Amino acid sequence: MKKYFSKKSVIKAMLCFIAVSPVYHASAQTKSNDAKMNAFVAGLMSKMTLDEKIGQLNLVTMGRAITGSVVNKGVEEKIAKGEIGGVFGVYGTEYVSKIQDLAVKNSRLHIPLIFGLDVIHGHRTIFPIPLGVSATWDMGLIQQSAKIAAKEATAEGLNWVFSPMVDIARDARWGRISEGSGEDPWYGSQVAKAMVKGYQGASMMDADAVMACVKHFALYGGAEAGREYNTVDMSLIKMYQDYLPPYKAAVDAGAGSFMSSFNTINGMPATVNQWLLTDLLRKQWGFTGFVVSDYTAVNEVTNHGLGDLQTVSALALKAGLDMDMVGEGFLTTLKKSLKEGKVTQQEIDLACRRVLEAKYKLGLFNNPNKSIDPAREQKDVFTAENRKVAREVAEHSFVLLKNQAETLPLKKSGTIALVGPLADNHSEMLGTWVIAGDPNKSVSVMEGIKNVVGDNVKVLYAKGANFSDDSLLSIRAFALTGPEAKDKRSPQEMIDEAVETAKKADVVVAVVGESSNMSGESSSRSDINIPENQKELLKALAKTGKPLVIVLFNGRPLTLTWEDKHASAILDAWAPGTEAGNAIADVLFGNYNPAGKITATFPRSVGQIPIYYNHKNTGRPYSGQGPAKFKSDYLDISNDPLYPFGYGLSYTTFGYSDVKLSKTSLKGNETLKATVTLTNTGKVAGEEVVQLYISDPVASISRSVKELKNYQKVMLQPGESKEISFNVTTADLKFYNNQLVYDWEPGEFIVQIGTNSTDTHNASVQWNK
Ligand code: BGC
Question: What is the chain's mean pLDDT, rounded?
Answer without folding.
Answer: 95
